[in-house]
Amino acid sequence: MGEKKSNGKKIAVIILIIVLLAVIGVTAFILIRGQLNQSFYKESIQTAEKYVESENYEKAIVAYQNAIEAMPEEEDGYLGLADVYLTQGETSAAKVTLKKGYIVTTSPKIRYMLDGIEDGSLLVKTPGEESEKQTLEITGKFGWNVSFIQKLENYTYQDFQAEYGGTPDIVKVARGELEVVHPDLAATCYYEDTPEFDDIVDDEKDRPDETGMPNMLVLDSLSLLFNNFGGTASLSELQSISSTQVTPVTTDERTYVELVNGSVVVRIETDAQGNITSDNAWNEIILTEANENRDRKGLLAGIVIDAVTGEGVPDAVLEFAAEENSANSDSTQTGSDGEFSIELEPDTYQVTISAEGYTAETFEFEMEEGRNYSGEQFIISPELAEGTARIVLEWGAEPRDLDSYLRGETDGGDSVFVSYYNRQSTSGGSTIAELDVDERSGYGPETITLYDLNGVYTFHVVDFLATGTFQEYGATVKVYLPGQSQPEVITMDPNAGVNIVWEVFELDHGELNILNRAPADENLRSDSK
């Protein structure tokens, strides 16, 4: 019996030793792993800072993200990453980064920076952004960006992903409440379950349901909301576009006005007289009918735009000719702002758009089953005068600001150069070429009209902010020439290797020579940006 007890004690001691060794091993592993993480964290921060110094912001972002992943409880990674986002003008991404960091760290520095962004004291402009464009005369009528409003009224989370980037930053504010920032949308989208719609947020996955729609947005830049907006707008201009009376409202926090467009309610901070004084003014976009129509499918909402003014074309007729089943064919007409909506069956359509004084143009549009389409733009050109040509640039949400450059020489020896900072080329009081529209918030159109075809000209497109994403996102140029019923459409070659400048075509006495390449020299002019 005593021998059995002795063996039992030996076994207990052995087990205890094994447990102690295991604990020591786990502790040592945790310590070593912590030391490795700390070392990697410091290296990542140092690497990020070097990239910031050299203005290589894309790599700086990756390095800061690596630092945060290694040591999420440290504040410097969040602060550095937010600072880079601010430098790039991505205010929403900066706020999301800081909110995530504050939840983990409760750092006073992070809270201070976040408060500074929200009250406007820490907003930083993108290097060079708008520095020369602020002095440009704003042409055209101030008004709503109808295309963007249509998106807000109809876009689901899935639609925002498809349009503005599929890997957004998401902050969980509370159960059933999220803040979402998409990579290519300078705004924060707020999703929240309501008593009527308790499935907007997927709490198991901490993301919105694919069919969920945001209840509210806050924009980094008001230029997304308005056309021909130069950073300021008077109370009378705001009243002219609102469907309700616009009167300044003063609270303890601010003075603001409330504008109404359909189901969209917009609140924007103003001065005491109700004038908008900044593109970055406090705002909130309330979507009063969010999620009420999210199950409806087959809706196409869009706008027909004048290529020369950038404004909507009223009373334009759209004829949808279905290719697969002619019974699906239909037609509609635009309203006073050029907007339209129509319900269509799944099919591929040839869309012919005609309006008085415009060249009739045909587009192809595919309506997929189970989908809605909102904010679709169809750009048409006023009829050309004899001996003239028109160049229309179109693109997507990114890069945000593309610029058209036309240069060349007439047979009479006149040098021609047209861009955003030299809108006209003239000779003897006559205009040779003119920039009609300079679009700075994505999509286009950006338009040049050439009035003298007796010469040789080249056309380039420049990514003003040098984002490095031009080739990734691409662009399209339409060239309207005399005697042609439809424009020549040039889409960026996916293998062109474009960085900042896209060399699109040469026009030799009205004959089009498509180049579609990256130029040998990106410096278009010695004093250009």
TrEMBL record:
- Give the protein's recorded name: Carboxypeptidase regulatory-like domain-containing protein
Region forming the signal peptide: none
Tell whether Ribosomal protein is among the UniProt keywords: no
- Cite the SUPFAM superfamilies for this sequence: Carboxypeptidase regulatory domain-like, TPR-like
Q: Which Pfam families match?
A: CarboxypepD_reg (PF13620), TPR_19 (PF14559)
Q: Has UniProt tagged this entry with the keyword Hydrolase?
A: yes
- Where do the TM regions start and end? 12-32
Q: Which terms does the record give in the GO molecular function aspect? A: carboxypeptidase activity
